[in-house]
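Bug report

Summary: structure tokens for M23 family metallopeptidase differ between web form and batch submission.
Environment: batch mode, default settings.
Steps: 1) Submit the sequence below via batch. 2) Compare with the web form result.

Sequence submitted:
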Amino acid sequence: MAKTKYYFNSQTLKYEKVKLSLGIKVLKGLGFISTALVFSFVIIALAYTFLDSPKEKQLKREINTLSLQYEILQTRLKQFDVVINDLQQRDDNIYRVIFEAEPIPLEVRNAGFGGINRYKSLENYDYSKLMIETTKKLDVISKKLYIQSKSYDELTKAVNSKSKMMASIPAIQPIDSRKLRGSISGFGYRMHPIYKIRKMHEGLDFAAPIGTPIYATGDGRIIAAGVERGYGNRIMISHGYGYTTKYAHMSKFKVKKGQSVKRGDVIGFVGNTGASTGPHCHYEVYKSGKPVNPINFFFNDLTPSEYVTMLEVASRDNQSLD
């Protein structure tokens, strides 16, 4: 209840009630309402500035989740790009050399997207830069895959016309993947297990139990089957077309010099002879007398995912077994 106010009337010498006119009452009411509105506006402004509504909190969570997904996608795109670049390298330096086809020029493989701004619709957003970069990478990868697909179409025609060559070129692993034990030591400079120095390792080491079959990786003729210093019991196969393969540290042979073999024939068995620190098959591929990375020649018996795994394992900078 509002308090009653009095004032002292000096004329009547009495205390009398204060009576407000209608205009003053209206002004006071308006003043109260105005003050309340100002305070309400200030409180709401502060709340919207420093406090999030439930809807805003939900939207921010969604934005953070999308940002994280974009970053994960960026990482995966980088991984895909590494694999595609390796496919391009193999295409230009292995497959096209084999089939006497000209490499695809880099300016064709890496050509940009000219013309109008393709990404204008993605501009003026909070995360425009992230969205545009991701979309650009997708476009580049899509174009690389398209060019690579066309290249493989061209090579497929060459394969059909050179079936004898394809049967001769090394194209499988010398050891069944299911028989492998432990890691694979790859091609390149590796720590030597005996001398403890970094030394060029000109092949791949496939660790497997003694007695595991070793297969010829392509059609050819046995040009050596005997003991070689460091390699122990080793076999060499001439495949023609400039290709030779070597299989070392065998326990015993199943073929002899001068014998013809087909891809997939058993030529011997895994052993631990020569300068070897454990049972394995040391496998080398030579093109025109020069050692090349054998991992580029496993295109007949590995799926794309298995090849990616093999590539990752073989590229580790570990210690060789011989």
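Above is the batch result. After comparison, the two runs are identical; trailing whitespace caused the diff. The helical segments are 22-50, 54-98, 106-109, 128-161, 163-168, 304-314. The first helix runs from residue 22 to 50.
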